[in-house]
Amino acid sequence: DTLPAGLKIQKYIDNKIDTVFKGKTVYVDDFILVADNNDHSIAFRRAVAAAGVNGCIAFLGNKTYNMHSPTILLTGQKVTANGGVATLLNMFDRTTYTRGTAVGIIQAGLNLSGVSNNTSGDADVSTVFNKGSATCSLSSVVGINVGDMLNIANYSGVVLAVNEGSVTFDRTATYSIPVGARVYRVSAFTGIDISNLHFDFNGSEASPRYGFGITINGAKNVRVQNITATNVASKVVQYQRTIDSVINNVNCMTGVDNRSDGGHGYVVRLSGGSDGNLLSDIKGVKVRHTVDIAGASRNRVVNCQAFYNDSVSYGTHSLECHYNSFV
Prior knowledge:
Blueprint lengths: L4 H16 L4 E3 L12 H12 L4 E5 L3 E4 L3 E2 L5 E5 L3 E5 L13 E6 L25 E3 L11 E4 L2 E9 L2 E4 L13 E3 L3 E2 L2 E8 L11 E9 L2 E8 L4 E9 L2 E7 L13 E6 L6 E7 L4 E6 L5 E7 L5 E6 L7 E2 L1
Parallel strand pairs: 1-2, 2-5, 3-6, 4-7, 5-14, 6-14, 7-15, 13-15, 14-16, 15-17, 16-18, 17-19, 18-20, 19-21, 20-22, 21-23, 22-24
Antiparallel strand pairs: 8-11, 9-10, 9-12, 10-11
């Protein structure tokens, strides 16, 4: 067809997610108990378990939920609000969740270490994985299968073929990866779909509250859209080791941490080999960056804006960011 490249990605992901989602819908409010002492993250986790893989978890629109701790989704799950936008109020304890905290109110994918078990106990790159090549020689291919998503440094790809002593990926390396780089299998959660939520981080410049809104780590074909946030001190949405996914219409209306000393106020961040993602209509007020890309390549950013004179619309970090486009 004649759709622009970015819209082709959006259409592709929409089709992927609409195909994946075949589960049942459960409502968070049905799992709220008096004994929870107004901590709605407990009911959210019960709803996630009840909905199961590919299920939908629905908050009620125009209602506020107190979120005291993170909730981890299952693959293929959809989270949304029924009849409007639901507000998720960050109630994370300030002594536990400090400025460097990298957990989200909503999470999916890998654990916080960022890596799963090594594919064969000691697999690593045995000869340089050259820029422009899709085939990588490994010290071992034991346990690696076609369709696995692997992460090597700041590169992520899906295995198309397992050869004797090497694997062929669905995409080329964007930089040369040295001998000895470790190889990891990532979760490759698919079909996660999060929409129609407002994150109130419930802090101020004098007393910020940290923790992310949404963090996805080790996934593909994910869609996050129609998200707003206020009082942001960390990140509204972060993708790590996540490929071929979409973030659309995310608006940080007020930030409270835009310090230049590695400030954590970002609207969207891509890192850890995130590749081939489309970010569109991302806006930030009083944050350090509206879009921050660190060690991620071949991503497309469309209509990204910052509305504060100390903010930057977008930034890239590390020598391992390549072929990202900003429109």
